[in-house]
Amino acid sequence: MNKQQLVDEIKRLKEEKNAVILAHYYQRAGVQDVADYMGDSLKLSRIAAETDADMIVFCGVHFMAETAKILSPEKTVLLPVAEAGCPMADMVTERKLTAYKEKHPDTLVVCYVNTTAQVKALSDVCVTSSNAEKVIRHYEGEKLLYVPDKNLGTYLKHKYDLDMEVWPGFCCIHNDVTKEEVEFAKSTYPNAEFIVHPECRMEIVEMADFVGSTKGLLEYVSNSDCQEFIIGTEKGIIHQMELANKDKKFHLLSENLACYDMKLTNLEDVYEALKNEQHVIEVEETIREQALKSLNRMFELTD
Ligand code: 13P
Ligand code: SF4
Questions:
Q1: For the segment 161-195, what is each residue's pLDDT rounded down to a tens digit?
Q2: How far, in Å, is the centroid of ligand 1 from the Cα of 41?
């Protein structure tokens, strides 16, 4: 099948099966273009909770599809590529977190949405990059543990002077950004604003004109009077930035800003997912109920 035939088949299958396609901004441009909804982790999880479709094809990584299943257990949730994971989500395990909790029974656990269902189930509240600041302020004065992203955790800890331990996990894409790359880009594009995702290290975040979730970054470039931007997050987001801002220029900070897992999904995989109803995401019910509590707590504190 050529590209147009694939797109037509995806559309036909979607209607036949009452399915919606959700895609994260880091997906390949061709996959973004067939999505019904795009968003950051928070927006996509809200859409998953609210849609009346019978089937959700989640073009992203495993924790995102799993979050959709936790919120919408009655729907069929499909992840087109079974191996598409998030290495950071695997940096905190159920076993290690249980051991920590046994040693620190008075500590509340705040988990990033980039975690497994088992870790969410062991946590008191979940956060995403777009609401972490809002959620965490409800817990000022408490003893906290933040898992697994040391960069977002350290940023929050210092900004709000929190009594918070931070797990040593990280995103291998954002964590690798260096000061030298930023300095070089700023000197190459002196009129550009530098914007970053909070998964970058604190010394990088401190050099930025704006820090935000993927959705926050997109909104920022559309609302800013500036015409040129240096992008300190995964390269896939530039597709939507260009579509929404035809007259503005976007410079990717480094070609290394490419998430291997996000790029595993192709249009063919989306087509196969819909045709064969693969790969079905399941979450064991007792885990799901517990994990749902930490997600609902997040929604209560931010709605
Ligand atoms: P967002 O919630 O900002 O989309 O981030 C998800 C992610 O995995 C960033 O690396
Ligand atoms: Fe995970 Fe980083 Fe990829 Fe986001 S960019 S999905 S945090 S590995």
A1: 999 999 999 999 999 999 999 999 999 999 999 99
A2: 6
User: Which atom in ligand 1 lies closest to the alpha carbon of residue 213?
Assistant: 3
| Residue (of 89, 134, 21) closest to 291 by Cα position | 89
pTM: 0.97
Ligand 1 in reach of 261 Cβ (< 6 A): no
Number of domains the chain contains: 3
The protein residue whose alpha carbon is closest to atom 5 in ligand 2 is: 259
Asked if residue 257 is part of any domain, the answer here is: no
Cα–ligand 2 centroid distance for 114 (angstroms): 8
Domain range spanning residue 165?
Answer: 89-172+285-302
Structure tokens at 286: 């007792």
The CATH number covering residue 187 comes to 3.40.50.10800
Q: What is the dihedral of CA 184, 186, 192, 196, to 10 degrees?
A: 90
Q: Are residues 210 and 161 in the same domain?
A: no
213 is in an annotated binding site: no
